[in-house]
Amino acid sequence: MTEEIMACYGGGCYGNDPLYFDSQEEERLARMRNKQLTKALKEYRHQELKKLKLLERQGKILDIRRNIKQSIVVILGALEQLAISLEHESNVKRMHNILQEASSQGDAALTDELLADIEVLWRDAGVQECYSRSYEYQLIDSAKYFLDKVEEIRRPDYLPSDQDILRCRVLTTGIHHIEFDVHDAGHPVSFSVFDVGGQRGERRKWIQVFDSVVAILFLADVSSYEQTLREDQTKNRFMEALEIFEQVWKNRFLKNVSILLFMNKMDVLAEKIQRGRSISALTDKYPEVFPNYEKFIPSSSEKIEFLDSYYKPEGDGRKRRNSRGSKSADVNPDLIKTAVYVKHIFMKIVKGEVVLNPTVQKISKDWHQNHSCEYFYTCAVDTNNIQRVLDGCRTLIIRKHLERFGII
């Protein structure tokens, strides 16, 4: 006796043999049952996906609490270094509790009691003063964002928002391979992305993914000009980024690989400029690399180019694109000037006008003939900005891939 085999697809269920019905009513009822089954399967799939997304968001709560713990411990540790006292004597005990818990529990998540202490400490004037001088020590960019939200994060029903997840910092170690499809002109195009860590100890691993690379997404933190490396307190972080960029641009294994330069963290740059932290100090420290910032004047086209990619937050936290007539008035002129100034420095490296580390191997005139460097002003936590940038990158990557194989 042959077993019946039934296969169900989006359009219906089919067996081994053609479907025969004794009457039209029987056929109608069968088709109705088929539609009900298909609908039930779709609803079940939708509910399961919702559960998975919920579990994924709940899993981020631990990382967010770690970010809060790391931030407050670093700030409290810097109080003594900067000779800053707490405003209220009652907060000294809270500070000792947190530091003692951090040293004994290591990377464990915060308890609700400690979160309550952190919420009170964060409002202390001494802690706020210490935070205002965070450029003098190592502190993650999202520290203020999460410390401002401690009351919300403490709630039992707290669920991270999209912005919470985007701002959550988890150190990249090793190489992470991500595959996804992007539709271009109605056809799916497969992309493989390798995410690598930028720390000094991670860079030796980069060579493993150089083979068959079509393009490199180079993320540069443009707000790091007043910070030093965690690994080397004497090394300026922005100078290190420029040197790495030059090494990648001149690497003999990447002569045919184009670079997509993401000048990232424009939101952090805007905050620093608002607080009066200018990039001009680098002009005095590295005059051979940085042209005089005070005398630098961006062109009108460069200003428009930046403003077209800049999204200003509204009061409700959402992003909107300003109309061209109001852009210039809404955006700090010093932010525009600094962003364009940073772009000029990177482009000077691309053109060979600035050499940070002379190479042993001679660079010929046609060295960069088969690759290019495209730049973008980005804010990683602004999904609208990143979507526009990635749309442009997608087209560029596809074109470079086709050029590489002589198709166009």
TrEMBL record:
<keyword id="KW-0460">Magnesium</keyword>
<comment type="subunit">
    <text>G proteins are composed of 3 units; alpha, beta and gamma. The alpha chain contains the guanine nucleotide binding site.</text>
</comment>
<keyword id="KW-0547">Nucleotide-binding</keyword>
<keyword id="KW-0807">Transducer</keyword>
<dbReference type="InterPro" id="IPR011025">
    <property type="entry name" value="GproteinA_insert"/>
</dbReference>
<dbReference type="InterPro" id="IPR027417">
    <property type="entry name" value="P-loop_NTPase"/>
</dbReference>
<dbReference type="Pfam" id="PF00503">
    <property type="entry name" value="G-alpha"/>
</dbReference>
<comment type="function">
    <text>Guanine nucleotide-binding proteins (G proteins) function as transducers in numerous signaling pathways controlled by G protein-coupled receptors (GPCRs).</text>
</comment>
<keyword id="KW-0472">Membrane</keyword>
<dbReference type="InterPro" id="IPR000367">
    <property type="entry name" value="Gprotein_alpha_S"/>
</dbReference>
<keyword id="KW-0479">Metal-binding</keyword>
<keyword id="KW-1003">Cell membrane</keyword>
<dbReference type="InterPro" id="IPR001019">
    <property type="entry name" value="Gprotein_alpha_su"/>
</dbReference>
<keyword id="KW-0342">GTP-binding</keyword>
<comment type="similarity">
    <text>Belongs to the G-alpha family. G(s) subfamily.</text>
</comment>
<protein>
    <recommendedName>
        <fullName>Guanine nucleotide-binding protein G(s) subunit alpha</fullName>
    </recommendedName>
</protein>
